[in-house]
Design a protein that fits this description.
alpha+beta, Immunoglobulin-like, six-stranded mixed β-sheet, 38% strand, elongated, disordered C terminus
Length: 283
């Protein structure tokens, strides 16, 4: 009886269908989503069927004369619940659950009503990381100022966006910042008045967001303590010494190789004299 009703529903869908395209439903991995079955006024449902249309066509749930059934072999087996109002709840959601879904309903007068919905499942945004890079001060840079670059990064997940905000402010000051690499890198010119100013990188997608806050002035070049060298001074010493050690190693290796060749050649020259015994006439 139920099987016959199912085939009748599919046939009526093709012949008498009134289709309604629903809105996109957004959710994230681990959550549940409720697909509401909207009915026109005066539509008294007799039979209903929920299906997955894409990426694969699967039967998810049915209702025949008030009898609800969800034990169909599909990727949502054990994760689908059909409510008495014919809304379908799916969860907990997985990363591959995005797709198109439809509900087909037949009323007591034989009218067919079809509604299509789309589910888009996103990963939850992880906490981002921020690196602070300090520009080497030039001759034209005013004293007690610092040019910094804040680089924000989060794992590569779909539809992610980057934005920045100055804590305690609605917006950045005019002409004090620049954005690069689709908002991932923020360039700032800081002064003494900015020593306690914090900046936050906000990473978001359509269903979640997270942020991390840094105080960039803490990384700026303060007056160096006695005996303290900057990274620039260290490079000026380390790089030449490393090159000298590398050249010395190459020279020693090359000298050893040449010495070995000369020794082998000398041995070859002496060998024939030692191989022939000295023969003397005996009186």
């Amino acid at each position: 009886m139920a099987k016959g009703s199912l085939w009748s529903l599919l046939l009526w869908e093709a012949l008498l269908r009134i289709a309604v395209t629903g809105a996109q439903v957004l959710s994230k991995v681990g959550d549940s989503v409720l697909l509401a079955a909207e009915q026109p006024p005066g539509f008294q449902v007799r039979e209903a069927i929920w299906r997955s249309l894409w990426p694969s066509e699967e039967l998810l749930a049915t209702s025949f004369w008030g009898s609800l059934e969800t034990l169909y072999h599909s990727r949502f087996l054990g994760r689908a619940q059909l409510h008495s109002n014919l809304s379908l709840e799916l969860g907990p959601l997985q990363a591959g659950d995005s797709g198109n879904f439809s509900v087909l309903m037949v009323d007591t007068g034989g009218r067919v009503w079809t509604q299509t919905l789309q589910i888009k499942v996103y990963d939850a945004v992880p906490r981002p990381m921020v690196q602070v890079f300090i520009a080497v001060p030039g001759d034209a840079q005013p004293p007690n100022t610092c040019q910094v670059f804040l680089s924000c990064w989060a794992p590569n997940i779909s539809d992610i966006t980057y934005s920045w905000r100055q804590e305690g402010m609605m917006d950045f000051g005019v002409g004090t910042h620049s954005l690069f690499t689709n908002g991932q890198v923020l360039s700032l010119s800081l002064g003494l008045r900015d020593k306690d100013v914090a900046y936050s990188c906000v990473v978001s997608n359509p269903v979640s967001s997270d942020l991390v806050t840094v105080t960039p002035w803490e990384s700026c070049h303060h007056e160096a303590a006695p005996g303290t060298a900057s990274y620039k001074d260290v490079l000026l010493v380390v790089v030449p010494i490393s090159l000298l050690l590398l050249l010395a190693g190459v020279f020693v290796w090359h000298s050893g190789l040449c010495s070995g060749k000369k020794k082998n050649a000398h041995t070859d020259e002496v060998a024939p004299e030692t191989e022939n015994p000295l023969v003397q006439d005996v009186p």
